[in-house]
Structure formats: C-alpha cells, structure tokens
Amino acid sequence: MRKIGIDQLDDMARGAGILGTGGGGDPYVGKLLAREAIRRHGPVTLYDIAEVPADATVVPISGMGAPTVLLEKLPAGTEELAALRALEAVLGRKATHIVPIEVGGVNSMIPIAAAAQAGLPLVDGDAMGRAFPEAQMVLPTLIGVSNTPMALADDKGNTLVVDAISNHWAERLGRAACVQMGCQVSCADTVLRGDQLADGLVPATLTLAEDLGRAVRLARAAHADPVAAATSVLGGVKLFAGKVVDVERRTTGGFARGKALLAGAGSFELSFQNEHLLARRDGGIVATTPDLICVLDTDTGEPVTTEAMRYGLRVTVIGVPCDPRWTSPAGLELAGPRYFGYDCDYRPLPLA
Amino acid sequence: MRKIGIDQLDDMARGAGILGTGGGGDPYVGKLLAREAIRRHGPVTLYDIAEVPADATVVPISGMGAPTVLLEKLPAGTEELAALRALEAVLGRKATHIVPIEVGGVNSMIPIAAAAQAGLPLVDGDAMGRAFPEAQMVLPTLIGVSNTPMALADDKGNTLVVDAISNHWAERLGRAACVQMGCQVSCADTVLRGDQLADGLVPATLTLAEDLGRAVRLARAAHADPVAAATSVLGGVKLFAGKVVDVERRTTGGFARGKALLAGAGSFELSFQNEHLLARRDGGIVATTPDLICVLDTDTGEPVTTEAMRYGLRVTVIGVPCDPRWTSPAGLELAGPRYFGYDCDYRPLPLA
Fold first, then answer.
1. What is the DSSP string of B208-256?
2. The complex's ipTM?
3. In order of start, what are the domains of chain B with their CATH numbers?
4. Tens-place pLDDT, residues B141-163
5. Where's the S-Me-THD-like C-terminal domain (chains A, B) (predicted)?
C-alpha cells in the first residue's frame, strides 16, 4: 500500500502513455484530470492486488471513445462518478476499489481521478497490460467475467446501462451510444471480485508506468538516451527509428483509425485503431497485436499518441511482449491480428 | 372495465393500423403476437382512464425500430417482458398497468401481449392518439414527464436502460442502440402515475380502434364503402383516391423513410418517416403532421402501412384532425412539419 499524490502523476502519465501503444487518450489531459481531483480530494491509496480482500467489489473506470475527439472536447470531470453511481445502482452494492481497465494516457489517470472523487482506494494493475480499443478485449473476458452491467455517462448528464448477452455485444451497444454521446464518455464496467484480480488483471502496471516514466525523465536529465532507458525498463526491442512522412487518420465508428508512414533506414508503416495494431518494415510484418507497439519521441522519449502523430516528427518504435495470456488461442481470438481484419497470424517479436 | 379476448383482436388491429397513419408496424404481425399471448395467458382486462387509481404505475410498452425490418425479422416474443422487467428494476417498483405509447398496428397489439404475459390490466388510451416516429413525441413530454428511464430489449437477450437529460436525448440514445440491436426492439418508457393519465394520454383509443375496425368490416360485409365508413367513424376528410405509381423507400437511421406517389384525378405525394407526415396534391400541401394522414386500401378499407405500399395498389387517403393538444405551439414544436425538416407551417385540414 502506498499513496499517489500530485508528485507521482508526471512520471506515471508519461509511462502509461508509452504502455498505451498510441491509444488510451492524451496523457496531458489525463494528468490534468487526476491532478485536479487529487488537489480537491487528497492523495489516492494504491493497493497491490494481493492486498485486496477476496470479497471486494473492484470497479474499472475508463474513458470510451476516440482519442482524436478528446483533443478538442474536454471531459466535464463529472462523468466518472456519474458512471460509477449508475453502475452501483444496478449492481445494488457499492464499489470498494477502483482499478484502471487499461494502461494508457487518459485511461490510467481517469481511475486515479475517480478514486480521489469517490474516496476509494485504487488497485495497482489493469485488465489488459496495455491499451486495446474495444471493451471486450480484457483478461476478464478470458476467464468468463461479464463486462456488463456497463454504465456510460457523458459530459451532459446522460447515463446509460447496458446488460448484454456477451462482452462483444456490450462493446457494440456501448460504442453506438458513445458515438451519440459525443464520442467521449466515461465507462464503469467489468466488475471484479477481489479473488478474481489475480486472473483478471495484469499486476502492478501503475507502478510499472511510474518506473517507466521516471526512467525516461532521469535519462533525459542525465543527457542519456531516454528511448533506450524505456526499452530497457520494458524488456522491449527497438523496431525502427525515423521520421513521420505521412499520416492517414479518420474518426469513424467511435474510433480513431488510420495509418502512419515513417521513413528512415527503409520504410515503416503503423496501422492503428485507437492503438497501434500492426507494424510493417519494408512491407514485411515485424510486430502485431497483442504485443505492444510503442511509439516514442526520439529526442525526449515522450509517448506519441496516434492523434499526435504528425509529419516531420522523429520517432522510435519499440516492440514489447504482451502479457502471455494474450498469446493463448483464446487471447489471440479476442485481440489478435485476425480479429482486426489483418490477414496474418500473430508472430512473436524478434529477439532484442 | 371490459375484457379483450382473441375475438376483439381483428377489428382492433385493423382500426389501429388505420390510426397508425402508415406506421406503427404491420397489424398482422401485431395481431399474431397478441393472439398468442392471450391464448397462453387468457384475456386482458381493459380499464378506462377514469378507473385507474391515482397512484398507479402505468407503463407504456412498445416496439421501436423501422417497420420495414419487422416484415423480415419477427420478434422473439420475449422482448416485451424483458424491457418491462429491466425498467421495473431501475424504477424500484412494479408496474400496475400497461398502456400503448401510440396507436398503430403492432404498437397497439404489443401492449396487449405484454399485459397478458405480465398478468397486468391494460389502460384504454395511448400517449399520442396516432403514431409518431420518435420517442419524445408523446403528450407526456408536453406536461413535463420524462421518458426515461427507458428500457430497451432485443430478441437476443440484450437489454439497455437510458437515463437522459431530455426526452429528445433519450430518443437519440435509444435509437442508436436500437439500430445495433437489429432495428426492432421492445421499449418500456415514459412511466405515468394514474393521476397523470388525463393529461398524458388520448383516452379510449383502443376502443376507437376496435369501433373503426368493426365499421370497416361491417361495411364490407354489407357491400357498402368501407373507406367511407372509416372516414365517418373518424370524422375525417377524403383527400385523394388513386393508384400508387411510385414508392421510394429506405431504411436509414433506425427509420423507414421515403415518399409515395399516387396518380388519380391529379397527382398526390406522401412523405413519410415511419408515419406519413406530409401530403401534397398537385404540388400543394393538403395535410401535415400532426394531423393524421391515413392510407386505406380503396377496395377493402384495410390500412396500408408505408412498408406495404407498392406499385399498382389502389388507395384512398383520408385526413383526420389530431388531438387538439398537438396543435398548441409546444405540440407543433415537438411534432409539427418544421421539426421534420419540411419548410411549411402546420395547416388545419380542409373541411369535409
């Protein structure tokens, strides 16, 4: 158990942004939300998974929508609690802990803000060990936990509760409502009991995010290579370094979809749906979902989200092995390249 | 108080189909649903509005979607109760009565089926006195009653509860979910207390539907003019008689939208969004929403829904004055021609 205060947020947001593989929302907006909530309500208590009682009611709180929208349409700051309260009303019991559904700029920070606002402790972990675009793409799906009831709340005061026959259906219905709500809503769903956390979460990812963010900051301060520091913390492999020469991006169906083309020693193409899902070097596939394809600013080591990718930016792409549960047959069916329509199988990352 | 059994359904469905102004869903499908429910669960008790206790919890049950879809995708028959139960769960109390939200082929029959299944009495009236395409277009909106919580249930077992900041927002969010659910769902919303029924309902419209359907049937049996019989029961005016020469129809945004062109003594054009909303004779407007524009088969007096309109059909169009509350400024803002994008004001029907 430890406290998260304002001082931890910079490193944590930076690291979460890197782990968010291009998605999860702008870390800066997330940091502001968490900072404001901690300023008002005080620091948040962070528990290891092992410290959470077996009968706890652990509620993931997240933002759903297209990160491109978040850049222009800021949250009201009331959505997280509105979603939590709507979920609790149908559950018939109160949340005892908050947890991130994924790591990613905004989606690691929103749970901190929600925990501060609700006066609840936070669990150190998340349900993906990275960021994925769709609501059913969580480890709890692999162990048969329903992601409904799923409560959505927008900035205007509308709420909506989905009770679906499958986790895919919840995504479909929630996404359609999310688009109508302005493509930027808060979500409370995929409730876990304390004794489901070991199987349903990747442990200690908030701490990993903080360690990662700190390593980048310290390397920069020491005039060392921040990207190399991040790669080392993550046990990742450098895939490419180059300049962004083209970005094709559209906000459609409730997602930010597109491609980015890099030029350096050869050419490199990234395909994304909120998150980077496929990387090709000179036409050959070098990394696929569910492994993490992280894009960093080559100079600063800061995460580059897909919506911030722009012509001329010098970036380095690193690949990081995903949680091994994602490379099981069921994991790949849920979040492997074929689910996203890419005609290729998952292939493990090249060795470093 | 009286009983509705299988024997009443034919007349009631026919009359409701006429009052549905082209929308409200295929009367035949609706009749089958109500017949099956009554066969299994027994007749339904129908109460006049004045007989309902002031503290009653009266729940409108309806189908939402595009009538064109209903022709090919039959309901499972489980949706009504699923929507009702989902609504009751968030209300925290049980419905005491069921009522139709509108008159129209399916939407007058679904409440009968729901009442039979739930073992609840039915109220003789509806919230429009006709059929309208959107969920906020109900008299309860005019007296400040919220249409949320709104519960939706599909044939697959998904349910969804909307809690919106306005009745328009509920329509928007519910419709988006409805489209994902297959464009054919059951809805429980716009809960009324017993003492709100006088202001929130048009009274005795199920009885009117039955009277109307009976008049058509008896005229036909007597080799009299069934369309004239219907016009007389409704106090309506004949607008045109002719042959359908063109139909332009698309299912989009959760609605059946389009136009139908008739030829006879001149030309006549009907514009619809689920329901007929505007009628032009030789280019001049002769009837507009919220007045009822009813299309009947000229030979049989049977209602012709927009989805059944086809080349060669001989039809007669009659105009019927709407409930006077709809022609108030607030009523016209909610359901007048300008709301639907027509650049004209409401004009009362020509005198008979």
1. HHHHHHHHHHHHHHTTS-HHHHHHHHHT-EEEEEEEEEEEEEEEETTEE
2. 0.86
3. 2-203 (3.40.1610.10), 226-335 (2.40.390.10)
4. 999 999 999 999 999 999 999 99
5. 166-349
